[in-house]
């Protein structure tokens, strides 16, 4: 995809779609506030950067040639997301007024394994272009804007939830339910085709 406007709009649409990384960003915004959640954006950027480059330049051709590798990757991603959802759910049951700490490492690994990276690597980022570095720079710019939007949306919801007596406990549980749903969809997708 070498049209810069179409590229940016596609990146915006895909990054703006709810997913595991965006759920973590919103959960952190709701639980910890937008300022403390900003530290997660470099982890998201690094996760996407590494994943897209690795998938686009190294693993993409191998995955395209072997359906078994693709299924194995889906199972690994689904298992990781289930573990992450369970951790978030448990945080909701032990909270006593303290903020849920979404760590940069969690965002990095979740983004590294995010299925959206495969779409970017194999269908959006034009690795054959001599200006592929400019496309990746544009990608990172859109990523920061979209990631910040998810954090701000979460912070707004967190303020509303804080007024409710169960607010601090419900925030990580909503995030856990969303991530668990994404895990189930990823695990079920090979059987739905």
UniProtKB/TrEMBL annotation:
Principal subcellular localization: membrane
PANTHER family, alphabetized: ARGININE EXPORTER PROTEIN ARGO, ARGININE EXPORTER PROTEIN ARGO-RELATED
Membrane-crossing segments per the record: 6-26, 38-59, 65-86, 107-127, 133-158, 170-192
Keywords: Cell membrane, Membrane, Transmembrane, Transmembrane helix
Name this polypeptide is given: LysE family translocator
Subcellular localization: Cell membrane
InterPro entries (alphabetical): LeuE-type (IPR001123)
Native species: Teichococcus globiformis
Membrane-topology annotation of the record: Multi-pass membrane protein
